[in-house]
Amino acid sequence: MPPSIEIAVLLLGVLALETHRSATALHIQHAFASPNQTNNFAVDPVSRKVYLATVNTVYQLNGTLSIEVEQRTGPVEDNLLCHAPQLPQAPCEHPKSLTDNHNKLLKLDRDQGVVLVCGSVYQGFCELRNIENISEIAVEFPHQGEKTVFPSMLNIAANHPNASTVGLIFKSQGGNTRLLVGATYTGAGTQFFPKEPQQGGPAL
Ligand SMILES: *[C@@H]1O[C@H](CO)[C@@H](O)[C@H](O)[C@H]1NC(C)=O
Ligand SMILES: *[C@@H]1O[C@H](CO)[C@@H](O)[C@H](O)[C@H]1NC(C)=O
Ligand SMILES: *[C@@H]1O[C@H](CO)[C@@H](O)[C@H](O)[C@H]1NC(C)=O
Ligand SMILES: *[C@@H]1O[C@H](CO)[C@@H](O)[C@H](O)[C@H]1NC(C)=O
Q1: Which Gene Ontology MF annotations are present (predicted)?
Q2: CA 125 to chain centre
């Protein structure tokens, strides 16, 4: 059979479809079912690995959707009024409770061999995981010896399940890799600003 264009599509984290140039109908070739709601997915065009982020888990699947690595991301002890625990010297007196981690951003950076994973917990904290094995943290935060860490370095994605976050990774002219993020400002987590309704479209 001659090779043809293959398009892998995940529908609600359940279906992968393949289409052939010669055929008009789509058929399911491989399927992967995740127990929890799917938030995001990304496909590495070279390795053909599929990265799938659901509520409380990220998956690394091979090209035929078998699980290579499964990494839990939640639920975690959190409180909207607390800084991320990764922020040094930021104790929080508010009681924390087990909180679901809705994935907000899942981006691949092939050049640096990392996957960016940001969730709704810890004020929208992001992690850089190893693209070959997403259970491994590629870059610890804060860096060893890093003395100054600002909350704005950690609060990246929206901290609410229903608030939008979009982002892209690009290389600037100087060759530095940058992350551009647009996130709904939720007002959740501060007593000084009113909460905004979440039901509307994304406000960037
Ligand atoms: C799915 O989410 C529930 C909470 O909503 C959590 O208890 C469970 O561990 C999650 N399962 C996976 C596989 O992430
Ligand atoms: C994915 O893993 C399964 C189970 O190990 C294996 O049968 C299959 O050939 C693998 N697919 C690819 C594209 O490597
Ligand atoms: C991924 O890394 C974890 C932790 O280092 C290890 O236990 C696991 O075997 C690795 N999985 C694969 C598929 O390499
Ligand atoms: C998110 O929106 C859905 C649909 O409007 C609603 O049912 C749900 O309660 C909202 N979740 C939160 C945590 O506000």
Answers
A1: semaphorin receptor activity
A2: 10
Instruction: Tell me the pTM.
Output: 0.83
Name the CA dihedral angle for 31, 34, 103, 193, rounded to a multiple of 10 degrees: 130
- Write the residue with the smallest CA distance to atom 2 of ligand 2: 66
Q: What is the DSSP letter of 157?
A: S
Atom 6 of ligand 3, nearest CA residue? 135
* DSSP 8-state class, residue 151: G
Closest CA to 53 of 131, 106, 121: 106
Ligand 1 center to 56 CA (angstroms): 6
Are the beta carbons of 182 and 166 closer than 8 angstroms?
Answer: yes
